[in-house]
Design a protein that fits this description.
single chain; about 280 residues; mainly beta; Lipocalin; 8-stranded antiparallel sheet; 1 helix; about 5% helix; globular
Length: about 280
């Protein structure tokens, strides 16, 4: 871990005192980066039953002339006190890794704080770290009437799908005039009998209908240097309510490469909820 990132985490951990009773162990929180708008990364955080913190961060990032998609980094930290801290790293390429550090506070309903994303290693020399704020919400069960949201509204939540003990995050942002909504979410796709892949999907602004529902079907491809292509088909839909939103998502992907065959990948249809 870089010296600056280590100092940041050490300072946050030094604030720890007795954990607030309202921050119940066993709670998962989901959401995304925030700076007045919807931003990567997509984040879920678990206050484990043993008191420790676990997090899962999904994002795409660029370094120099290279872009990396659907990157997932897991992080962990000690039991929280007045604040929590968690760190993790993942090797992206040879001599290049991505380090993450989360610090913040949590209660029964919300986790807020900052996340630092730092490319490290000789291959990522010169690539700058960036720090963003985030907001995460515990799972909700919206039951209000269908309602068009306030312009600029942000919603955070979780899908029914999980990666290990961590539920996967969902975040939504309503545009400035309240007519469209965009989403940032993760899904895990099973590919044949063994492989499981994650997609971190940014659903573009989608029209909110008169009945407060929305639906977006996406088709896009990611091409790689070895000649392979990942072709995605994605559906993200939901209904906006007076106290949040609820809906379903599904991601499918097929890899193709001359001379090779691959299993299709499918997340299945998964329910999600989110709150303001």
């Amino acid at each position: 871990m870089g010296r600056g990132l280590a100092l940041l985490v050490g300072a946050a951990a030094a604030l720890a005192v007795a954990a607030p009773a309202s921050a119940a162990p066993g709670t998962t929180y989901g959401g995304a980066g925030r700076a007045g708008r919807l931003l990567s990364p997509s984040i879920s955080l678990l206050h484990r039953t043993d008191g420790r913190i676990a997090a899962r961060v999904g994002l795409g990032f660029g370094c120099g002339k290279r872009n990396f998609f659907n990157v997932v980094v897991r992080a962990a930290g000690p039991p929280p006190g007045a604040s929590f801290a968690a760190t993790g790293r993942r090797r992206i390429i040879r001599d290049g890794r991505l380090e993450v550090a989360l610090t913040g506070t949590l209660d029964a309903a919300t986790a807020t704080g900052t996340i630092t994303l730092a490319p490290a290693g000789p291959r990522f020399a010169g690539c700058k770290a960036r720090t963003r704020t985030f907001v995460l919400r515990a799972e909700t069960a919206p039951a209000g009437a269908a309602a068009r949201p306030a312009p600029g509204a942000l919603l955070w939540g979780l899908s029914a799908q999980a990666a290990g003990a961590l539920r996967l995050p969902v975040a939504l942002k309503v545009n400035a005039d309240g007519s469209r909504v965009m989403g940032l979410w993760q899904a895990r796709m099973r590919c044949g009998p063994e492989a499981v892949l994650t997609v971190v999907n940014l659903t573009p602004p989608t029209r909110i209908r008169a009945d407060a529902t929305f639906r977006r079907r996406e088709r896009y491809s990611i091409r790689y240097r070895d000649g392979s292509v990942d072709r995605y088909r994605v559906v993200f839909r939901g209904r906006l309510l007076a106290d949040g939103a609820a809906g379903t998502l599904r991601a499918r992907m097929q890899t193709s490469k001359p001379g090779a065959r691959f299993f299709p990948c499918d997340s299945g249809t998964r329910r999600w909820t989110a709150a303001f």
